[in-house]
């Protein structure tokens, strides 16, 4: 935060938001004054993502994502603001002077990356060179890992107690090692290595930096797989194992296969299958689903183990994908066979054939899972199965997907489509009611028709040629809090850009403001006149509101419920005549 505003402005204005975004979303095309594409932050078929180079902001009219160029880079790269600033500064060749604090925060992260990188090298060297790693090497061989794969994934071996020793010698402290997730401090204050006697898989972020480790036991420990904990550089839910290693060849098959384990990913990629990734640890998250959607260009396949645990995990993953409106398929291996075992035994061709022959749509999987075991001739069982399936169908907002799914369920459960549609409709009503209550705030700020008169004034003032009018609005004239806030920014700095203001706001204010800013267009009319009309409208609205208040009170007075108040009656009459004079009837 200590980088000066002037430098921030300079980076922002020299970054060319449309070109920055285009690097991530090649489909971004010019459409009149603005640029448009399908939103990279939610799944959609028709573009509602608008970029205004002139104003330096982006806004999605589907999901409400909005901001300046820094915000975009933050969201798409999942990095903090300061890193986005540095990244864009570097791109535009601007040097930034950072305060000490920022430097410390940054160098702390840089230090963690350094420690993790050095640990990965240490583990890998142990795997290759030490005699203690024989079990690890034997295990890798038995699973069919080639030397090239071991290199590509930097697979390593964590010996008992040796990492700390070597890291301390290199000058890292216990505290730093603990912060990187490599050591744990016990209650008695002693430090232990997190991984010991395990086959180690370094986990990389999308930029190829080591951020954590997964380790498989070599001593039949009860914990078969162990991951290092979350740290300032590692968030489980925002990364995928194997993604970085397959980035280069993603274009080949244009598909992502979501697998369950590290070994599955490593082996699948070893056999030349592109796009093989795995979630980290047990749970699959919405953030990971979105990450996958960004890279799975034409197809996403969920391929988990064919046991009960695997099927439950598939079920949960499909729900998460559906919640985020991402269409996926599932496939399954023969019972009890892991993908890596299958590849080892039958080879790549058979694996591909199996994927083709055995892949199902999400709804197929759901039907089998829900109705598979039940005797769906019994009406109550049928109704129950239909109900669960409709719960799943309604998660998919895409109308075409819904239609296909309804058709499928109708055939398989032998139920009329009409009935299913009726039930779905009932749920929709219920669902919207629920959503309206929950998202009231966002709905209000995002609705199409609720641009208030004060909003219109702000929209007018945002035009660069209208800035002279900012000072004509006295303090206390505006009543809406968010409008007062924006007016404050405008009067504080006459040439402030929409992007700058937006960067100071959080949602839902940011959503509301970005919409106004995108819409603010230099019209053809006479500025003086437009301002006059808006100003008057706000005045009248205020008078009307006050008059309505008084009206209620006077009504109570006339009913004898409260004492009469001559002052108020006088004020009421005055306001009424003012409104009449303005040409507006009550
Ligand atoms: Zn969106």
Main attributes of the structure:
single chain, 586 residues, alpha+beta, DNA Primase, Chain A, DNA primase DNAg catalytic core, N-terminal domain, Dna Topoisomerase Vi A Subunit, Chain: A, domain 2, 5 domains, five-stranded antiparallel sheet, five-stranded mixed sheet, 54% helix, globular, binds zinc ion
Explain how this protein is built.
With 586 residues, the protein is of the alpha+beta class. The protein folds into 5 domains: 5-91, DNA Primase, Chain A (Alpha-Beta Complex); 102-234, DNA primase DNAg catalytic core, N-terminal domain (Alpha-Beta Complex); 236-358, Dna Topoisomerase Vi A Subunit, Chain: A, domain 2, CATH 3.40.1360; 374-438; 453-581, DNAb Helicase, Chain A (Orthogonal Bundle), CATH 1.10.860. Helices cover 54% and strands 11% of the residues. Strands 1-2-3-4-5 form a 5-stranded antiparallel beta sheet, sandwiched between helices. A 5-stranded mixed beta sheet has the order 13-12-14-15-16. β12, α12 and β13 form a beta-alpha-beta unit. α17 (379-395) packs antiparallel against α18 (399-413), α17 crosses α19 (417-438) and α21 (453-462) runs antiparallel to α25 (527-558). The longest helix is centred in the C-terminal third of the chain and has 32 residues, at 527-558. Residues 432-449 have low confidence and may be disordered. It binds zinc ion.
